[in-house]
Amino acid sequence: MSVITTNEAVEAVSNILQEAGASGVKIDDAADYEHLKPGKYGEIVDLKTIPHRTSGAEITAYYPETVFIPEILPTIKQRVNGLSQFGLDPSPATVTSKAVADESWATAWQKYYHPVRVTRYLTVTPSWENYQPVQTDEHVIRLDPGMAFGTGTHPTTVLSLTELEMVVRGGESMYDVGTGSGVLSIAAKYLGVDQIKAFDLDDVAVRSAKTNLALNPIASDVVAEPNNLLNGIHQPVDLVVANILAEIIVPLVPQAWENLQPGGHFLTSGIIADKLATVVAAQEKQGFIIDNVLQMKDWRGVIAHKPTEDE
Questions:
Q1: In degrees, to the nearest 5, what angle opens at C-alpha 263 toward C-alphas 262 and 268?
Q2: Distance between CA 166 and CA 127 in Å, rounded?
Q3: Which of 66-98 are b and which e, b meaning 16 or more Cβ less than 10 Å from the residue's Cβ?
Q4: Where S-adenosyl-L-methionine is bound, by residue (predicted)?
Q5: Average pLDDT, integer, range 213-234
Q6: Mean pLDDT of 58-80
Q7: Could you give the angle at which helices 246-258 and 276-286 cross, rounded to 10 degrees?
């Protein structure tokens, strides 16, 4: 099933399609190509050779043959058109469907995903690859990216993994806020964190996290639950990790402060460059001490801690 819509409605439409039972989504967004110019990356990128949309976006969702598409199509059309009530422009909101052979989507795309050494100690590999570590201190995180959460190699995730490597000493307790694929919880277990609870507002994300946790036996004791940030959580831990948008980090700041032990670390990522000052200001106003700011492409990560009585 494909939906033609605007750039601003991409995430909302994707969510509608997933809630209707999609096994995965593909996004072709014209905005992703706006900054790609011939020669900017040597001679690698030339838009004339890359088929792409020049306006708006197309979200394609894939459903198993057990789903009767004509039954869910009217509901999806109604929900997509209804996004205007929430201040989003879904136009033209064109919804179409067609049958495809299993090979066209279920397995063919897997050839593009391979093991990636994302940090010094952590390698992310898709679940179907029989990858073996090449060094004794290399930890292999196995993920199933089939639920549209990617393979764990996005810059924001790499920044979060690097932050964990820099801070974790072993034996800590941790909250993983907005867990998504669960990759940060899995990495934290490999690095020595003892007790972890992972939260996400999206039930799809919680199910995806549980699937990936099961692929990594070291993370079998991680608890993944639906929750809105740290609402209702009042048990201090040593680490709070959040790879989410800056706009969501800001309201998380006082919750992280309440739920951190003195000396505990607040690790954040998902911060686009022009939002860094806003996030840092909110943390410093709360009382956090900023220890480090990490950078990868246009993204930033912040390592902060709650001061002890001696600081």
A1: 110
A2: 26
A3: eeeeeebeeebeebbeebeeeebebeebebeee
A4: 157, 178, 200, 243
A5: 97
A6: 85
A7: 20
For residue 148, pLDDT beyond 80: no
Alpha-carbon distance of 170 to 277, in angstroms, equals 31
Report which of 72, 69, 67, 65 is spatially closest to residue 104, judged by C-alpha positions: 65
Distance CA 19, CA 28 (A): 20
Tokens of 108: 């063919």
- Residue 207 three-state SS: helix
More confident residue, 84 or 175: 175
**Whether the Cβ atoms of residue 159 and residue 300 lie closer than 8 Å to each other:** yes
Radius of gyration of the chain (CA): 21
pTM (predicted TM-score)? 0.70
Name beta bridge partners: 100. Answer: none
Can you list the pairs that 135-141 forms with residues at least 24 positions away whose Cβ atoms lie under 8 Å?
Answer: 139/187, 139/190, 139/191, 140/115, 141/183, 141/186, 141/187, 141/190, 141/216
* Residue 100: CB atoms within 10 Å: 11
Binding site members: 157, 178, 200, 243
Give the pLDDT confidence of 23-43 residue by residue, as tens digits. 788 888 887 766 655 554 444
* CB-based contact 201:251 (threshold 8 Å): no
In the chain the domains, ranked by start, together with CATH numbers, are 2-104 (no CATH), 153-305 (3.40.50.150)
Structure tokens given for 308: 């002890």
Strand order, beta sheet including 57-62: 24-29, 57-62, 2-5, 94-96
**Do residues 60 and 17 make contact, with C-beta atoms less than 8 angstroms apart?**
no
